[in-house]
Amino acid sequence: MTRGWMYGFAASALGVLAIAPVASQTPVAPRSVDETRALAAHVLNRLAFGPRLGDVDRVVQIGVDRWIEEQLRGEQINDASAAKALVGCAFWTDPVVNVVQQLAGPIVSRSARPSSNGNGMMVTSFAITRSVEVVKRDSARRNERFSTALLENGQLLAGRLTRAESSDQQLIEVMTDFWENHFSIASSKTLSRGLIVEWDRAVIRPHALGTFRDLLGAVAHSPAMLHYLDNDVSLAGELNENFGRELLELHTLGVDGGYTQADVNDVARAFTGWTHSLVSNGRISITGMGSERAAVFSFNAARHDTAAKVVLGHTLPAGRGTQDGEDVLDILARHPSTAKFIAKKLAVRFVSDSPPPSLVDRAAATYLRTNGDIREVMRTIVTSPEFRSPTVFGAKVKTPVELVLATRRALGAPVDTAAEMIDLLIDLEQPPFGHLTPEGWPETGKRWMNAGAMRTRLSIATRIANGEMPSIPVEQWPLWPSLSRETFDRQVDGVVRTLLDGRVSDRTRGALIAARPTNDEAAARVSAMRELIAIALSSPEFQRR
Q1: Residue 128: which pLDDT band, with cuts at 50, 70 and 90?
Q2: Which run of H or E residues covers position 161?
Q3: H or E element: which one contains 356?
Q4: Within 13 A of 332's CA, how many CA atoms are on the CB side?
Q5: Which of 115, 203, 216, 273 is close enough to 303 for a disulfide, judged by CB 3.0 to 4.6 Å?
């Protein structure tokens, strides 16, 4: 494949990607088949991780409104597709309690390399910040153990993405991704690999379209979150404010939500004693890799501050225990600032980087009216004229996770048994559970669009098209056998129709046409097909959603 197209197209693509349209507040009803298909492609790019081959046709056939309603009730959808994809992946199919016990060891990064700190302790560069005890004096066994853990970790994280990619309950998967980012935890400060599975399957996913109060309660009781924000070692007289501060600033009210430092202090006091079973005498007890005990929530009354507290004007009486924390969660979940903060984050994720204030206000009103019913807030957003306006179609830059999953879905890639997608996400700088600080990955496009990021995206598209990525074998794309033998003009039409949902700018079409081969021989057609796929996957139309 010739790559002369890459550099000029990269510059133009970066310029187009940097432009984010602002949502119109004027309803725009579909008036033609083409407009209906465009709306169907839009909802698949926003409420799913991109369309698979034939998905746009299926949504048009059943109707966009019906498809949205089915996704809002996603727990009722038979998810045989995910079950089939996850065959052999016990981390994501066995009972959670069994997996948590089995994977009671820390995550090790695929990018890490085993090394010794001189005391027989293995240190890794990405996924664990604390040293992990390993077998001393036996280098071969240490490296073998590291390699085994590395393979398990890659499979664990890839399994999470496989479910997101393959599930027919796509909105639940997208919402799970949203909430796991909203309540961000980092694998570099996770007690065990099993807690990552529990976090996804037992804490976030069951509440992704439930009530915010139930979700908030599950998060606050999670050993993963309590440890990540240091609440597991917070006690009366030795207060740690990390959890209290982030609970107010990042999880509920927002930085401008109307709380004070005194509120932070008293919220932190309310959660003293909220800890887990691995804490003993103020210390976390972790043994060697693979032999850790599973962590479960516990309340240590002896470590709780029982004095009276005042949170956002509400008095918490003295002499109580866990009720202090539960009352704080109630206060925060029903607060108007929380309604506004959550409504805006959801509107940013699903509508545009700068959603209209009127839409945010309506979504916040729904939140307050329904006591934080996430499903109803989402219904307000995704049935709104702002969401359905053509001015927001393609207005959002795909994050690396969205890009990798959308690419795999568009090309019908087989299950990634080698966890190659984890390596891709490391290259794209969004490894799963890899954001070190608690604010999570940005939901707006600016973070993901710069010259270096665009070069990486273009390189990945080219590698896929050249057949250099085993987990995304382009020759197994269902349309490859037919299109690779077609005339060039039909190849262009096929790529535009299937990979770009029929949406193509003059600039992108020009780049596609410029790939015309000098002859019509079979080898030239295959080469042209590869270049067309690379251009399509690199285009603003595919890089945006």
Answers
A1: very low
A2: helix 139-166
A3: none
A4: 33
A5: 273
CB-based contacts of 82, cutoff 8 Å, min separation 6: 162, 163, 166, 167, 168, 169
Q: How many CB atoms lie within 10 A of CB 433?
A: 21
Mean pLDDT of the chain: 88
CA distance 208 to 480: 37
Q: CA angle at residue 70 from 66 to 76, to 5 degrees?
A: 150
- The whole-number average pLDDT for the span 505-516 is 96
Determine the residue type at 76. Answer: Q
The partner residues of 235 in beta bridges, in order of sequence, read 238
CB 273 within 8 A of CB 300: yes
Please give the Cα distance from 319 to 303 (Å, whole number). Answer: 13
Question: What pTM, to 2 d.p., does this model score?
Answer: 0.90
For 235, which DSSP code? Answer: B
Residue 284 — very low, low, confident or very high, per pLDDT cuts 50/70/90? confident
Three-class SS of residue 247? helix
Question: Residue written as tokens 């098209």?
Answer: 465
Over residues 314-356, the pLDDT tens digits come to 999 999 999 999 999 999 999 999 999 999 999 999 999 999 9
